């Protein structure tokens, strides 16, 4: 069984999913420390004129707390901003009307915990991709040489081309003449629907 330790990102990038393409189990670690300037609370979508980063506001100054203690700042009404952005970006996408209803209630439920919010969204993404991968919450003391540890590898500070997980495979997008790679999984799901999994398999770099 191939087991991979990963970070729990917000609506992860295509690189993130390409990196776990052949995993039978992924392990998430709720006691890992929250990292600023990471994908834990941000994702990227394609609007008509630009790529937009959606960021979830976090309470407090965010000292080095474990992920399960990170609380979302719901006083900023960010959910409406994110939902409006997603609708503007993908409202006319071929599979938007089929897949958006899975995501909308999670946003509207006033999530307090970043960990719980990201976990629910990941569960939906894996369901829509029809991936049977097992998702477990791990303990760092249980890490072994047989577990591939990808944590801290995928970060916005470095381009995906510097890592060995993802090679862009173009698919039809709503906006722009040039293909925009490595957006949120939402872009692929809304544009390609049931074919999203096949695109990801083709996008995974072969060792």
Which SSEs are present, and which pair or pack?
Layout (H helix, E strand, L loop, with lengths): L2 E3 L8 H6 L5 E4 L13 E5 L4 E5 L22 H13 L5 H13 L5 H16 L4 E4 L9 E3 L35 H8 L3 H8 L4
Parallel strand pairs: 1-2, 1-6, 2-5
Antiparallel strand pairs: 3-4
Q: What are the key terms here?
A:
6 strands, alpha/beta, four-stranded parallel sheet
Describe it.
31% of the residues lie in helices and 12% in strands. By secondary structure, it is α/β, with parallel strands linked by helices. The chain has one domain (3-203). A four-stranded parallel β-sheet has the order 5-2-1-6, with no helix packed on it. Strands 3-4 form a two-stranded antiparallel ribbon. Strand 3 (42-46) and strand 4 (51-55) form a beta hairpin. Helix 3 (96-108) packs antiparallel against helix 4. The two termini are 18 Å apart. The model has no long low-confidence stretch (mean pLDDT 94).
Specify the biggest β-sheet: 4 strands, parallel
Radius of gyration: 16 Å
**In what range is the share of β-strand residues?**
5-15%
Low-confidence stretches: none
Give the helix level as a range of percent.
25-40%
CA distance, first residue to last residue: 18 Å
- SS summary, helix count: 6
Mean pLDDT: 94
| Estimated structural class | alpha/beta
The count of domains is 1
Q: How many E strands? A: 6
- Coarse morphology: globular
Organism: Algoriphagus taiwanensis
InterPro entries: WbqC (IPR014985)
Pfam families: WbqC
Protein name: WbqC family protein
